[in-house]
């Protein structure tokens, strides 16, 4: 199973057909070759194997990120308790 964490576009590299994204604090450059729709700084996207697959609504992205943060917190708590 593959889970895609929403990532926010923080820089555009149009000459390379790429964008830099921030995924829960981790920044990386990914390809936007597969996107027909133009991307802008601030957009939220889903990435698979280094390619932007689609743009998602900010509200949906925020909801997903909140759930991922909750999962991370729970796992960290469990790790500290063991």
Question: Which descriptors apply to this entry?
Answer:
single chain; 82 residues; alpha+beta; five-stranded antiparallel sheet; 1 helix; 37% strand
In short:
The protein is of the alpha+beta class and 82 residues long.
Can you describe this structure?
With 82 residues, this protein is α+β, with helices and mostly antiparallel strands. 29% of the residues lie in helices and 37% in strands. The protein has one helix and five strands; from the N terminus they run βββββα. It has a five-stranded antiparallel sheet.
Tell me the strand percentage band: 35-45%
Give the terminus-to-terminus CA distance. Answer: 27 Å
Listing every helix as H and every strand as E from the N terminus to the C terminus, the arrangement reads EEEEEH
Radius of gyration: 14 Å
Helix content: 25-40%
Low-confidence stretches: none
Largest beta sheet: strand ordering? 3-2-1-4-5
Q: What is the oligomeric state here?
A: single chain
**Overall outline:** elongated
Number of helices: 1
Average pLDDT over all residues = 93
Number of E-type strands: 5
Sketch the major β-sheet: 5 strands, antiparallel
Category by helix and strand content: alpha+beta
